[in-house]
Design goal:
The protein is mainly alpha-helical. It has seven helices and two strands; from the N terminus they run E-E-H-H-H-H-H-H-H. The chain has two domains: 52 residues; 133 residues, no CATH class. This is Receptor expression-enhancing protein.
């Protein structure tokens, strides 16, 4: 593990430190994206640019738009959303397990910890959603005369819920492993809480 991402704590353990990432604000996104795209030298990308007459950045935007539309309205969108958050991290985790001397598995260990935590929180959110749906059903029965307004409300609610689910899922899953998001979230929020709990447990054992 590199010195910039970990340090030894007083208790002999390893305390993770924040990692520097190339994207720190919205204005950093496009320069980093352009630099990353220019580093790609796959033949099919060059051929695609020649066939369409468009640069790779514009092609990237078109592909991203198509993927977002599919995630919103396409069949199997929930499966694809889960696949994005699981397939690549699982592959990298497998490489870390098979080559422990060449790969630092801490990043992926932290990622899976936070992935499980967010999945648990998402279950709680869906329980709240079920309660809200029940209350909405009662409201619908009480105001059955306002059918048109109710229909508009429910359609808007369904669209907002769909947008919230997929973009929230991708919004936390993608940054977790693409920009050391899981690592830095763990360092800033989870690690201090875990240290506090560990100290309380140690104090209770010594009493």
């Amino acid at each position: 593990m590199s010195d910039e991402s970990a340090s030894s704590s007083g208790g002999g353990g390893v305390r993770l430190q924040p990692r520097q990432v190339p994207v720190n604000s919205l204005k950093d996104v496009r320069p980093v994206l352009q630099q990353t795209l220019m580093q790609l030298d796959q033949p099919f990308i060059i051929k695609l640019e020649e066939m369409t007459g468009m640069d790779r950045e514009r092609l990237f935007y078109i592909v991203c738009s198509a993927v977002m539309l599919f995630l919103l309205f396409g069949p199997g969108n929930a499966f694809l959303c889960t696949l994005i958050g699981v397939a690549y991290p699982a592959y990298q985790s497998m490489l870390a397990v098979r080559n422990p001397t060449k790969t630092d598995g801490t990043q992926w260990l932290v990622y899976w910890f936070l992935f499980g935590l967010f999945t648990l929180l998402d279950c709680v959110r869906w329980c709240s959603f079920a309660l809200f749906t029940l209350l909405d059903c009662v409201r619908w029965c009480s105001f059955a005369l306002f059918t048109l307004l109710n229909l508009v409300y429910r359609c808007s609610f369904a669209l907002v819920t769909l947008l919230d689910y997929f973009f929230t899922s991708l919004g936390y899953v993608l940054p977790l492993y693409m920009t050391y998001g899981a690592h830095n979230v763990y360092v800033k929020f989870v690690q201090p809480l875990a240290t506090w709990v560990e100290k309380r447990i140690c104090k209770s054992k010594t009493k």
